[in-house]
Design brief:
This protein has one domain: Hypothetical protein apc22750. Chain B (Translation Initiation Factor IF3, 2-Layer Sandwich), CATH 3.30.110.70. Strand 3 and strand 4 form a beta hairpin. The chain has six helices and eight strands, in the order ααββαβββαβααββ. By secondary structure, it is of the alpha+beta class. The chain is 30% helix and 28% strand.
């Protein structure tokens, strides 16, 4: 199972001088007034404020990673451990740098986190992972940080973040699981059965895809358990090939781990709203 290489090192991440200068300017440390940046929509911004948090700034982490090569038996279903570890570590590096920026701002957490990928024509087998979100700080000075003392991370929207807090839960960490898997080729018998036009399940394909998804899910859940979460909300699974061999695919599971803040999880009932706008 891939291990988080930065789980105990996030506080020691060294940020580029240009990033530190930008963060210092946002904090007003250069004599200028405090000015936050945010990728929150207007509705998200106002709902985050209503939930008792102030945005501090847009925080970003990046990692350009060279993806190595791993031999696979063309007929065998198997996880490609080297590629799995590379994809996992590159995302974690980007995440840890984003968290380090939020920590430098004195944030309690990051909302609206998203992880994007990019590739460049000048770098074959290079993939860039970019993690970004809006760093926020609680106005009541409550402790919203992780057990490791770092800002929480969450990919929830501003609306979902506010609803979660109102229901007596809080986000702890954005948890991830990855699995790069080689799907074995058809056997000669399977090829003949499918070639004759029969309806028949391709058992090796089904099992390979099933196993790969399960491994990604298990790893995401293991991360949530490691931070003491009660559950994961907003979980989703994506699949990508990144230009690898046609029989190689990655499944990536991601979601926000949450913990309860009170035993009562009741939220206000929705209120009916009548529009006063002129229908004409």
């Amino acid at each position: 199972m891939p291990q988080n290489p930065n789980q105990n090192q996030n506080q020691n991440v060294q940020l580029p001088k240009s990033a530190m200068d930008r963060l210092q300017e946002m904090k007003g440390g250069t004599g200028a007034r405090h000015l936050f940046t945010s990728d929150l929509s207007v509705n998200e911004f106002l709902l985050v404020k209503e939930a008792g948090f102030d945005p501090l700034g847009l925080v970003i982490g990046s990692s350009i990673y060279h993806i190595g090569y791993q031999f696979a038996n063309v007929m065998q279903n198997q996880e490609l451990d080297v590629l799995t570890q590379a994809m996992y570590e590159s995302r974690e590096l980007a995440m840890s740098r984003m968290e380090a920026e939020a920590n430098a701002l004195g944030a309690d957490g990051i909302v609206g986190v998203r992880i994007n990928t990019g590739s460049y024509s000048w770098g074959e087998n290079l993939i860039e992972f970019i993690a970004m979100g809006t760093a926020v700080k609680s106005r009541d000075n409550s402790n919203y940080r992780t057990p490791q003392g770092m800002p929480f991370t969450s990919d929830l929207s501003g609306q979902d973040f506010r609803t979660l807090l109102a229901a007596g839960y809080r986000p702890v960490a954005l948890t991830m699981g990855a699995c790069v898997y080689h799907v074995g080729a058809q056997s000669m018998g399977q090829w003949f059965r499918s070639a004759t036009g029969q309806n028949v399940e391709m058992g090796n394909y089904t099992q390979a895809i099933y196993d790969a998804r399960e491994l990604a899910m298990e790893r995401m859940q293991a991360e949530a358990e490691s931070v003491g979460a009660e559950g994961i909300v907003g979980a989703r699974i994506t699949e990508s090939s990144y230009g690898w061999d046609s029989h190689v695919i990655e499944y990536f599971a991601i979601g926000t781990a949450v913990v309860p803040t009170r035993p009562d999880h009741q939220i206000q009932s929705p209120q009916m709203v009548l529009s006063l706008n002129d229908p004409s």
